TrEMBL record:
Record's keyword terms, sorted: Hydrolase, Magnesium, Metal-binding, Nucleotide metabolism, Nucleotide-binding
Keyword Metal-binding recorded: yes
Protein name per the record: dITP/XTP pyrophosphatase
Cofactor(s), names only, from the UniProt record: Mg(2+)
TM spans (from-to): none
Cofactor binding comment, as recorded: Binds 1 Mg(2+) ion per subunit.
Enzyme Commission code: 3.6.1.66
SUPFAM superfamilies in alphabetical order: ITPase-like (SSF52972)
Gene source species: Streptomyces corynorhini
Family: Belongs to the HAM1 NTPase family.
Enzyme class: hydrolase
The reaction(s) this protein catalyses: XTP + H2O = XMP + diphosphate + H(+); ITP + H2O = IMP + diphosphate + H(+); dITP + H2O = dIMP + diphosphate + H(+)
Assembly behavior: Homodimer.
Amino acid sequence: MTRLILATRNAGKLIELKAILADAGLPHELVGADSYPDIPDVKETGVTFAENALLKAHALAEATGLPAVADDSGLCVDVLGGAPGIFSARWSGTHGDDRANLDLLLAQLADIAPPHRAAHFACAAALALPDGTHRVVEGRLEGTLRTTPAGTGGFGYDPILQPDGETRTCAELSAAEKNAISHRGKAFRALAPVVAELLG
Ligand code: ITT
């Protein structure tokens, strides 16, 4: 069975990726980057989700000699011109402090009324092979930002993003419900046939 490395150190993402790729029927052994603790973190120097996803996937494929998939994702708020965008994980200054990131965003939007709180999650999903071959695809989840968090599921900004057509936030959906409509679900379901084509 071909081993496929999932180039993420975000525990919430890793859980979603494993479920999405397993549901897509990929016959590969899926291993998180934490199985390779000696590999240094990749600097996310790209200016788009696609560039950063490719940086992460290539770095891990080169370091391990195995095919790697990565995502770069974030929340894009219309009234902020698409921010936090690629800075979503470190919006408050501390990388990965989900609660501080969410609180800062809510404070910044405190005076913005519901009709102007449109936002979307975006995800670029990349596959890189040790020989340098790569592919990247993208997915989105459109919605509106709540004024107060609700729900305990998911991670990151899930408690404040209410998908269009839903009455619940992403953090109030089950894992399967979120994966069925999410930016990450859409991107990795599009990447799965590409993985199958390139890796067999
Ligand atoms: P890796 O780079 O190791 O994968 P990371 O958390 O740094 O982990 P990103 O650079 O892609 O990942 O940043 C993604 C951030 O965007 C994440 O920390 C959340 O704040 C937000 N985000 C992305 N997808 C999300 C989702 O499905 N639900 C809620 N927030 C999400």
